[in-house]
């Protein structure tokens, strides 16, 4: 299928350091897939192997069903948007966009037409005569985008293309790039360490850790059900607790942390009595309540800190040995004093059971 | 205004050196060139343009043209030889070894050019190293010395480092992601070299060419020693005017004309040179 990327058992080491380890992943034709992970997780190395800049030590890469593992970059049906854009400083904007078409030996008229169309698509019409150095960072990024998509590649690779932009511009570009991808129908493989970027843009996200994919899925699925501690941590499940399963009964698991805090979790079938597990609760699934109510978990603690974020407030609450983060939206948050005793409430359904070791249970 | 005054103050030593070492000698030489030689090789300061009229005769113009030809050939050969070396030094050699390798490039400067020219004579003469080796192989001997090819060889040998260094500087800082971008956009190695590496190393090419071309224009040691003074180039002509012929005013006129040629060339190439400076 056109635009499909199949990675089979890919491995790549730099000296003693394994950057990518036995990694298999299928990118569907026409989808927007994000490789999400912290720096050093191997996401850029993986992208560079798909582009052909690095050759894998082991494994195979298939693009649209063809094995390209041994092909040099200039023969692969992919194009790349580089992190620092890598625009040719000796060429004009139009000259940059025309580079690939010239290489393909297209006629002058056709090149002119397609370059103009590509520049208009990224809203840079009329700037073709400028030098890249005369453009702003956001405009340079659009040139890089136009230069790559003008060749109508089967797969477009994007290596943290927004890392150098300021926040506001980055937020605009997210939507713009996503729209562009939908219009073109080209497979996008997008590398980022920004979870928000990944959630906004992707059809699917592959979370990477230490050279492997820890979890793949649509943003909603990943957000709702992170499978491992690493994925949960990376997707802002701020409250991670190590707890022992005291009992499992009637679809509920009773848990106790080392510090003695007890609470219930909805049993997803993975809790075993007497076993120590990691669980996570999102800050926004917790709240501060005045009185203990029905069925929910309640933990008493002391208010330690307030982090005011405008649209919400993050409260840091000390519960025994743990410090929990509770997010309250601005509409319900009220003034509290540091040191004040508070009760943290959350439903058993908000407790996520997490696997600990990397690659476990795959 | 203080910053402007500070700038002038900082430029002052340079300005003084330029006046003392360049402008003043040139002015002196120009004054000489308007005079006449005296019977015993002195200068009679009676101004006329006779020396220039004489210098523009076909005989001397031919020598000038030959010098320009030698300088062009030297520059071109240096460029062809230096580019792969500089490319390897700047882009392929292990970064930790680069310092030592650059020292090797400039190592010849530790020996006087004159001595190095004599070394070439020892290698190229009929009983020299090369012909001895050829003789052992049952070949030769070949006439390697005292011809135009030997002059060119000496020039290229002497000027090569001045081409390698600026080329190295511009190739070494070439962003490797630009070459990846070229490959990504479908350009094979040859096309990437032609469309990206070469244009981006143009400042180095221009700087190196100027550094090689100008001294080659006035070369006299290599023509004298390796050419056996059989073919006359501008450098030898000027030198002989000051020494053997003892016609300093005519020598000064020839020198001044040569400087003028360089100046005109620099003006013509000032745009690419400006790029070389800003890069």
Report on this structure.
The complex is a heterodimer of chains A (362) and B (279). Chain A is of the alpha+beta class and 362 residues long. Helices cover 23% and strands 36% of the residues of chain A. Chain A contains eight helices and 20 strands. In chain A, β17 and β18 form a beta hairpin. In chain A, α2 crosses α3, α2 runs parallel beside α4 and α3 crosses α4 (137-149). Chain B is mainly α and 279 residues long. Chain B has a single domain (26-278), classed as MetI-like (MetI-like fold, Orthogonal Bundle), CATH 1.10.3720.10. Chain B contains 14 helices and two strands. Chain B is globular. Chain B starts with a helix and ends with a helix. The A-B interface holds A 51-53, 72-74, 78-80, 82, 84, 86-90, 99-100, 102-104, 147-148, 151 and B 175, 177-178, 180-188, 191, 195-196, 199-200, 202.
Mean pLDDT of chain B: 89
Number of domains of chain A: 2
Total discrete domains of chain B: 1
Q: In CATH, what is the homologous superfamily of the largest domain in chain A?
A: P-loop containing nucleotide triphosphate hydrolases
> What is CATH's topology name of the largest domain in chain A?
Rossmann fold
Kindly provide the radius of gyration of chain B, computed on alpha-carbon positions and rounded to a whole number of angstroms: 23 Å
**Helix coverage percent of residues of chain B?**
over 70%
Please give the largest β-sheet of chain B: 2 strands, antiparallel
Distance between the termini of chain A: 26 Å
Strand % of chain B is under 5%
Rg of chain A, Å, rounded = 24 Å
Q: What percentage of amino acids of chain A are in beta strands?
A: 35-45%
Largest interface: A-B, 24 and 18 residues
CATH superfamily of chain B: MetI-like
User: Please, how many helices of chain B?
Assistant: 14
């Amino acid at each position: 299928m056109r635009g499909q990327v199949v990675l089979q058992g890919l491995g790549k080491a730099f000296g003693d350091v394994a950057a990518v380890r036995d990694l298999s992943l299928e990118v569907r034709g026409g989808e927007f897939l994000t490789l999400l992970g912290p720096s050093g997780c191997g996401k850029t190395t993986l992208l560079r192997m798909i582009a052909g800049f690095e050759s894998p030590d082991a494994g195979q890469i298939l693009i649209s069903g063809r094995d390209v593992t041994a092909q040099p970059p200039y023969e692969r049906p992919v194009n790349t948007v580089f992190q620092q854009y890598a625009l040719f400083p000796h060429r004009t904007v139009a000259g940059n966009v025309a580079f690939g078409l010239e290489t393909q030996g297209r006629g002058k008229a056709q090149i002119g037409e397609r370059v103009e169309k590509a520049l208009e698509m990224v809203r840079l019409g009329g700037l073709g005569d400028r030098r890249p150095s005369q453009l702003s960072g956001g405009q340079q990024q659009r040139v890089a985008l136009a230069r790559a998509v003008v060749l109508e590649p089967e797969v477009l690779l994007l290596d943290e293309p927004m890392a150098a932009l300021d926040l506001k511009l980055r937020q605009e570009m997210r939507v713009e790039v996503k729209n562009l991808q939908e219009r073109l129908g080209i497979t996008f493989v997008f590398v980022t360490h920004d979870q928000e970027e990944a959630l906004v843009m992707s059809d699917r996200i592959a979370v990477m850790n230490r050279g492997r994919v820890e979890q793949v899925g649509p943003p909603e699925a990943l957000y709702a059900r992170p499978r491992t501690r690493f994925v949960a941590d990376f997707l802002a499940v701020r409250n991670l607790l190590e707890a022992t399963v005291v009992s499992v009964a009637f679809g509920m698991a009773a848990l106790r942390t080392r510090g003695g805090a007890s609470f219930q979790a909805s049993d997803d079938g993975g809790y075993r009595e007497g076993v120590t597990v990691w669980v996570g609760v999102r800050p926004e699934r917790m709240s501060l309540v005045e009185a203990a109510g029905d069925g929910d978990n309640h933990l008493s603690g002391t208010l330690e800190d307030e982090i005011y974020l405008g649209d919400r407030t993050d409260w840091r609450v000390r519960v025994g040995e743990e410090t929990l983060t509770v997010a309250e939206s601005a509409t319900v948050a009220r003034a509290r004093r540091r040191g004040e005793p508070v009760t943290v409430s959350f439903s058993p359904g908000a407790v996520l059971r997490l696997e600990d070791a990397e690659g476990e249970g795959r | 205004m203080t910053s402007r005054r500070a700038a002038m103050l900082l430029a002052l030593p340079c300005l003084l050196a330029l006046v003392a070492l360049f402008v003043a000698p040139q002015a002196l030489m120009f004054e000489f060139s308007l005079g006449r030689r005296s019977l015993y090789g002195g200068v009679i300061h009676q101004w006329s343009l006779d020396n220039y009229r004489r210098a523009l005769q076909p005989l001397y113009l031919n020598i000038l043209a030959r010098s320009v030809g030698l300088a062009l050939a030297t520059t071109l050969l240096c460029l062809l030889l230096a580019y792969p070396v500089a490319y390897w030094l700047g882009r392929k050699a292990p970064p930790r070894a680069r310092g030592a390798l650059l020292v090797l490039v400039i190592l010849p400067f530790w020996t006087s050019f004159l001595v190095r020219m004599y070394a070439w004579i020892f290698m190229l003469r009929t009983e020299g190293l090369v012909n001895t080796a050829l003789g052992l192989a049952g070949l030769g001997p070949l006439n390697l010395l005292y011809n135009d090819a030997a002059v060119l060889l000496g020039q290229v040998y002497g000027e090569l480092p001045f081409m390698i260094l600026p080329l190295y500087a511009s190739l070494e800082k070439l962003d490797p992601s630009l070459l990846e971008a070229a490959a990504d956009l479908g350009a094979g190695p040859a096309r990437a070299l032609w469309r990206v590496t070469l244009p981006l190393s143009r400042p180095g090419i221009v700087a190196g060419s100027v550094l090689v071309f100008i001294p080659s224009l006035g070369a006299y040691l290599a023509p004298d020693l390796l050419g056996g003074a059989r073919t006359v180039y501008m450098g030898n002509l000027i030198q002989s005017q000051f020494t053997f012929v003892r016609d300093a005013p005519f020598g000064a006129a020839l020198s001044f004309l040569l400087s003028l040629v360089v100046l005109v060339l620099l003006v013509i190439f000032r745009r690419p040179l400006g790029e070389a400076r800003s890069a």
